[in-house]
Every structure is written in structure tokens, then in C-alpha cells.
Write a structure and sequence with these properties.
heterodimer; A: about 325 residues; alpha/beta; 8-stranded mixed sheet; 10 helices; B: about 325 residues; globular; ATP-binding (chain B); ATP-binding cassette domain-containing protein (chain B); ATP binding (chain B); transport (chain B); nucleotide-binding (chain B)
Chain lengths: ~325, ~325
């Protein structure tokens, strides 16, 4: 086991109240595994990834829980100790390739900075490694392009540069926060292919944060579905897409227009919208949008239960029916 | 059904990037280059393509936000560029647009009721005494309530704002609505709500849509016919079932194979090499030739023209 997150809670203290963006989230990632976290905006998926990296800024902060990376608790480390791990053992690809590179530095200097900080290489060696990494991620004529500034590159190329930077120290864990959202589909296919190859090559684990269920289906081994800061379902990819259990997951899957769908009928809709995090409904946070909501759902929060490796947080699958999950 | 509502003939829009000392253009961006298409009454025509392919520019020309460099637009048989300003104005009322970003396309200082009422008042469609009633009717049509009339855009979520944008477009009773990526800024569960709303409104108001999007799943859901654009050129037009089942242009094939699909066997992907070339200096000949996996000799020399290869299925490629 590479990373184990236990009961992570991240809170933002605002004037109008406290928002619990990540609420009691626990999961594990094994070596070489691709774990995807899906959810809509405001579900807490990005905050989860930032919490792992210790990048949550005031007025927010990790309020509880443990983040065990190779049995070392990251949440207890000082910023200086974290610096040793960040970009070295755990690295991150950010959502917007347009804004996450420094516009006034050359590509090579940005990548070399990371290498020289962590790998104790001379400038010459670091440059050689930079060019090698740019080549690995598929940048044509890497030695020349290394001298470019970010604005001279297209979105797909910048995302490749970000990936090269993230992979330059051969991390054990790569956190990819919506790595393809800002890109076109043909470029998205290239980047996903690249992530796949890199995993094979370096045997690293990937935590893939996305809202695109298609990407999840193609890329991930295991999936976590988040809603309003909580994990509502967790299963391996095949099980989740073939037998989704939680009404939210079911609705989400049905509401996507698919290119292999021949019918012209109306799309399935989840009614309403994500509740305001300051005014959560009592009980299950999905209860006001759920079409299978029962009286009990509006009063208490269901627990995340595990049955045969498939975790789900819903009263429809209460422990009352021991054994298999049965959809009523 | 097959009555032609809008016909576009060899439409081009060039943007001058740089001029020499005489003011003569030396560098020109061909955003839309000799595009021809027809939109029939009552249909939804989908337009797909990657960023920078000119699909939004085309939409903006059709609603008269840009004037074309060359080419003709016929709306209900009349050529738009031949009309004088006054006549043109009454036609512009018939063609409305829904914009991509619901956060940027509504005036933050106006209440949503005023936003919807403004086009009615400017076009003098109703006596002032009836405007309010119409605004409430429109709000109800798009699924908003009467009490939300006096709220400001910032009080609404993205999906609700997009509904306001739709109500504003409907306010002048248009015949054609250009929907420019109306759902790409929304979450999946909200996206389905807005798509269904657009579907219902099309029935109710007998609308015609030009639906611009980059999500092929969304386009397939809502359109009857689909056109594919690449670097300012239309490369394929076909009825949607035909296009998705039997794409002919290699670019369309690659685009379709690049989409991650749920619940199907993991398919062979066509991974295109490289990026979309700059539209300022597009490759000679076929613009896709630099990335095409079926590229052969004539591709670098001639630009292929749109040809009808089977009824209703047009493709621009030297293979056909």
C-alpha cells in the first residue's frame, strides 16, 4: 500500500460559517494503481488532492484525519519536510496548463529547477534529463523546444510539459487534477495514452481527479464517486459502471449523452442542483435530489458500508439485507 | 421538413493579423474559409470541431456579430448582405444566439427580468403594458419562477443563468437559434436538464437550431444533421446516424475514436500525431494532411472540395 488516507476532513472557516469541503474521506492507493475520484464541481475532489499535497490555503485547513504515505503521516509534517516529498515522491499535474506554468521562465528552467532541488544533479546533467523527459512525453525536437517560453506552446504541449515536470523525479504517486479538461478530445486521447505509458514505465500510482466519466472508464482501475464532500460509492471500474448502486451514480451515468446511444428520447435528469455547502439538507446530502428518497434519508446520514469490495453510502442497501447488495 | 431556412454559400471570414507599412495585410488568419451549408426548417444542425476550428466565428457571422469577408447568406430565400440596415434589423430578430459562458453573457447590473424584457422593448414587439406578462411567461417556459424575476444574475447557479440566456433568446420569437456551446460550462447533471429544456422548447416554439459544440455525445443527442469542421473548413456533413455509424473523413474517424465511451469494449484508438496547426499558416493542400494517417500524394497539393458520396452525406477528402 502506497497511500492510505484515513478520515480526512478539510474545512474552510468563512464568516458565514464553516464549510466542510472534505468530510470523513478514507481511501487507499496501491503501487501502480490508477484511482479515479469523480464528482461535480463543489464535490470536494480537488480539495482532497490539495489536502494530500498540503496546499490548502487559509482560511482553509486540514481539520482531522491522517494521510499516510509509505506509513508517514503527511498531515503532521512541516512545510519544509513536505517540500522534500512534494515534486519528488508525490507530484501533481494541475487542471489548467495555461496558467500553471510560469510565463516568464523558459520551459527548461522550470523543469530543471525541480530536478536540481530533488536529485542533486549538476546543471548539465539536469538539462540532459530535462531534454530526455520532454522527449519521453512526446515533444518534437525537445532540445530546441526546451528553450521556449510557455506562450509559444499550445495547450496540449503545455500539458505535456507539466507532465514532464511532474515525472522528472520519478514520483511514486502522481496526482492528476483534471489533466485533460481544458484540452480538445484528440489531444485528450494523446495525454491519457501518455499517462498510461508512464505508469507502465515507472510503475507509479496515479490519483486521477475528473468529472468526465468517460475518461474514468477508459483510464482508471478503481473509482470513488464523491458528492458534497463525502464518498458515496467506491468500486472497481467494471463493477461501478455495470452495477452502479448509489442513486446519484446511477443518475449521473444515465444523464450523459453517449455517442453509442441510438435513441432520441429525453435524457435522464437529476432534479435540482447541488445544495449550498452552508445550508446542507439534514440527513443524506443527496436526499433532496434523489428520486428514491425515503423518510429516513431526510433525518440521518447513511454510513459508507462495504459489501464484497463495493462500498456505498445509501439506506437502500442497509445492512438489514446481509450478504449481497440487492437493488430493491 | 425539407424547406430550407438558411443557406450559406462560400462564406469566409479572414482576420488580418499584421499589415505592412502601406496597410496591406501580410498575415491573415482564415477563421472560416469557404464554408457552404444549408439548414432546414425545424431541424437541429450540429457543428462540431476542436477549439480554433472556426465554429464559433461561423455562428457569430450568422447572427451578424461579425460581417463576412466574402460569401453569401440566404435566410428564407433573401440574401442578407443585400438588405439595408433597417431591413437587416428585422431579420436579425429572427436569428438569436445562446452563448457559451453563462457567467459572462448576462449583464451583472440588470435583473434577469430586465435582461429578458430588453430585446422585447427595443424591437417594440409588445405594448409596454404587456411586456411584464411576457417576461413571466418566458421565465416559466425555461423553468424559472415568477418570484425570481427581480433577482440579479449572481444570485443564480450556472444552469439557471443559462436558462435566463435561453429565455432572452426566445423573447423576440426567433426562427433560428445559434446555440454556441450552451452546456459545456455546466456540470453533467445540470447539462442533461438544459439539453432536455432545449429539446422541449424546439417542439413548443417550432425552432431551428444551429448547435455548436465540441462534445460529440451532446451533438449526437440533440442534432438531426451534423457538420464537422477542421481549421476553418467543413470536412464532412451527414445525417447524424450516418455520420456516427459510417464516418468517412479520416479526421471524423479520429475524432470519434478519441472520445472515451462508457460500457463498450475498449476500442482501438486512432491517436493523431501533433497539434492542430496554426490557422495563420495552415498546411498547403488539405489542411488535415499534416496529421492525417491516410495522407497520400494529392493531399499536399490540392484542397479537397465537399462531394456528395451518398444521399445527404458530404465529405471533403481526396480518398473519395
Amino acid at each position: 500500500m502506497l497511500l492510505e488516507v484515513k478520515n480526512l476532513r478539510t474545512e474552510f472557516k468563512l464568516k458565514r460559517g464553516t464549510v466542510r469541503a472534505v468530510d470523513d474521506v478514507s481511501f487507499t492507493i496501491d503501487k501502480g494503481e490508477i484511482l479515479a475520484i469523480v464528482g461535480e464541481s463543489g464535490s470536494g475532489k480537488s480539495v482532497t488532492s490539495l489536502s494530500l499535497m498540503g496546499l490548502i490555503q487559509k482560511p482553509g485547513g486540514v481539520a482531522g484525519g491522517e494521510i499516510l504515505f509509505k506509513s508517514q503521516d503527511l498531515s503532521k509534517l512541516s512545510q519544509k519536510e513536505l517540500q522534500e516529498i512534494r515534486g519528488n515522491k508525490i507530484s501533481m499535474i494541475f487542471q489548467e496548463p495555461m496558467t500553471s506554468l510560469n510565463p516568464v521562465w523558459r520551459i527548461k528552467d522550470q523543469i530543471m529547477e525541480n530536478i536540481m532541488t530533488h536529485m542533486k544533479m549538476s546543471k548539465k546533467e539536469a538539462l540532459a534529463r530535462t531534454v530526455e523527459m520532454l522527449d519521453t512525453v512526446g515533444i518534437p525536437s525537445p532540445a530546441e523546444r526546451a528553450n521556449d517560453y510557455p506562450h509559444q506552446m499550445s495547450g496540449g504541449m503545455r500539458q505535456r510539459v507539466m507532465t514532464a515536470m511532474a515525472l522528472s523525479c520519478e514520483p511514486d504517486l502522481l496526482i492528476a487534477d483534471e489533466p485533460t479538461t481544458a484540452l480538445d478530445v484528440t489531444i485528450q486521447a494523446q495525454i491519457l495514452e501518455l499517462l498510461y505509458q508512464m505508469r507502465e514505465k515507472f510503475n507509479m500510482a496515479v490519483l486521477l481527479i475528473t468529472h468526465d466519466l468517460g475518461v474514468v472508464y477508459e483510464a482508471a482501475d478503481r473509482v470513488i464517486v464523491m458528492y458534497c464532500g463525502k464518498i458515496v460509492e467506491e468500486a472497481d471500474v467494471k463493477t461501478l459502471f455495470e452495477q452502479p448502486q448509489h442513486p446519484y451514480t446511477v443518475g449521473l451515468l444515465q444523464s450523459i449523452p453517449q455517442i453509442d446511444n441510438e435513441s432520441d428520447e429525453h435524457l435522464f435528469m437529476i432534479k435540482g442542483m447541488v445544495p449550498n455547502p452552508l445550508h446542507m439538507p439534514p440527513g443524506c446530502s443527496f436526499s433532496d435530489r434523489c428520486d428514491r428518497c425515503m423518510e429516513r434519508c431526510t433525518k440521518e446520514m447513511p454510513e459508507l458500508q462495504e459489501i464484497n469490495g463495493h462500498k456505498v453510502r445509501c439506506f437502500l442497501y442497509d445492512k438489514a439485507e446481509e450478504g449481497e447488495l440487492s437493488a430493491k | 421538413m425539407n424547406e430550407v431556412l438558411m443557406k450559406v454559400q462560400d462564406l469566409s471570414k479572414y482576420f488580418t493579423i499584421d499589415t505592412d507599412w502601406r496597410g496591406k495585410p501580410v498575415s491573415v488568419l482564415k477563421a472560416v474559409d469557404e464554408v457552404s451549408l444549408t439548414i432546414n426548417k425545424g431541424e437541429a444542425f450540429g457543428l462540431v470541431g476542436e477549439s480554433g476550428c472556426g465554429k464559433t466565428t461561423l455562428g457569430k457571422i450568422l447572427v451578424n456579430l461579425y460581417s463576412p469577408t466574402s460569401g453569401k447568406i440566404f435566410f428564407e430565400g433573401k440574401e442578407l448582405s443585400a438588405l439595408n440596415k433597417k431591413q437587416r434589423r428585422s431579420y436579425c430578430k429572427d436569428i438569436q444566439m445562446i452563448f457559451q459562458d453563462p457567467y459572462a453573457s448576462l449583464n451583472p447590473r440588470m435583473t434577469v427580468g430586465d435582461i429578458i424584457a430588453e430585446p422585447i422593448i427595443i424591437n417594440k414587439l409588445l405594448p409596454m403594458s404587456e411586456v411584464e406578462e411576457r417576461v413571466i411567461f418566458l421565465l416559466n417556459c425555461v423553468g424559472l419562477a415568477r418570484h425570481q424575476r427581480n433577482r440579479f444574475p449572481h444570485e443564480f447557479s450556472g444552469g439557471q443563468r443559462q436558462r435566463v440566456g435561453i429565455a432572452r433568446a426566445l423573447a423576440v420569437e426567433p426562427k433560428l437559434i445559434v446555440c454556441d456551446e450552451p452546456v459545456s460550462a455546466l456540470d453533467v447533471s445540470i447539462q442533461a436538464q438544459v439539453l432536455n429544456l432545449l429539446d422541449d422548447l424546439k417542439e413548443e416554439f417550432k425552432l431551428t437550431y444551429l448547435f455548436i459544440a465540441h462534445g460529440l455525445g451532446v451533438v449526437k443527442h440533440i442534432s438531426d444533421r451534423v457538420g464537422v469542421m477542421y481549421l476553418g473548413k467543413l470536412v464532412e456533413i451527414a445525417p447524424k446516424k450516418e455520420l456516427y455509424a459510417n464516418p468517412l473523413n479520416p479526421y471524423t474517424q479520429a475524432l470519434l475514436s478519441a472520445i472515451p465511451v462508457i460500457n463498450s469494449e475498449k476500442k482501438e484508438r486512432i491517436i493523431l500525431k501533433g497539434d492542430v496547426p496554426s490557422p495563420i499558416n495552415p498546411p498547403a493542400g488539405c489542411r488535415f494532411s499534416s496529421r492525417c494517417f491516410k495522407e497520400f500524394e494529392p493531399c499536399k497539393l490540392n484542397t479537397p472540395k465537399l462531394k456528395e458520396v451518398s444521399p445527404g452525406h458530404w465529405v471533403a477528402c481526396h480518398l473519395f
